[in-house]
Amino acid sequence: MNHLHLISSLLIVLAASLSVAAAPRLRQFTTADGLSDNHVMGMAEDPEGYVWISTESGLNRYNGTSFDSFRAGIPGTLSADELNRIVADPVNNCLWIATQRNGLDRLDFDTFKFTHYGEGSGPGDLNNNGVTDIAVDKEGRYVWISMWSGGLDCLDVKSGKITHYNKKTVAAWPSDNLWTVALSPDGLVFIGHVNEGFTVFDPNSRKVRHHQAVAGDSAALPNNTVKAILPDANETVWVGTHGGLALYDVTSARFVTARHDPADPRSLSSNSIHHLGRDAKNNIWVSTEQGGVSVLSNPASFMSSGGKGEFVNYSPNSRDSLPLSSPMIQATLHDRFGNAWIGSYGEGIDLLGHMPEAVGHISQHADSGLSANSVTSVCTAGDTLYVGTDLKGLDVMVEGKRIAHINAGNSPLQ
Q: Which of 342, 330, 340 is nearest to 56 (CA)?
């Protein structure tokens, strides 16, 4: 990691911490702060800790103090400004970018070069340019691409070959109009359709298990418009629909559901769901249309309780002292520093910090503090902070206390 990355990573930590220490706890980022557009479509964190944001008008990277924007129109950059979801791929060290009408882009984090995959009839071409979502397997071998009207494509990253899965190539394939795709650890592909429900697909056997809403059946899918899928532990999958939230048991093929109840402030805030996310404590964050964000804090008991979990709801009229900038939330991201990034459709991003204990001051002290107050460089490794001082050597800090001091007298340091 070079010095620029070290400094930028520290700035991200400091910026997030400061947003917690100062009132209000929620900090908003909009075009006034350098964001290319206030209509956020997706977010991802790269291996260096940078947060990337896709919008209706360009791609952005937050570097800790400001936004770097990437737009179409310049050779070798984005193929289009109107974007959908994005996925950071740590294995291939790149960002996969879904465009609304111009295919799939790949941004290499090392070279900052873009590679484009578009619609065509060749072995490396997409079936359709309307890419809605992306999923990458944990080994970084395959990229699964859902399309608005082209079914599902699978890109072999090494060979560049793309395999098409749709009504023409797979028996019993329900519909080629897809909103989202997600993967299980054992190779199953979960597919959310625009109007035809939820599908579990095994690409090895090419078997399709399809589910649709059934009126009056509480154990069925709540609605046939599925925009969000989040695989969970124990062969269960969270499914966000336009009719409520469901937890699907892969083994039993059964759903447990939760819906908005106007009489219950602790119920799901809205039945129309755009995105599902998970934080470090395994809380499930539900991004909704006109209802803000609903957070389910005890998801492990959701299945056994028959969907009777309680939600904490955040909206512009929040009862929990965290008023969001907009009720229309497209996505959430939980970064490595414990912050929640909440992307809205029209009002930019709200940044919610979760590290009040991280705000502090370390100064010179003979026994446990810095060797000098003049600091020239810093970096982190896990919970350890390394501080380079002016003429006094290197301090190694853990939890605000110096555990080691390295200088020219006790090391080869010069």
A: 330
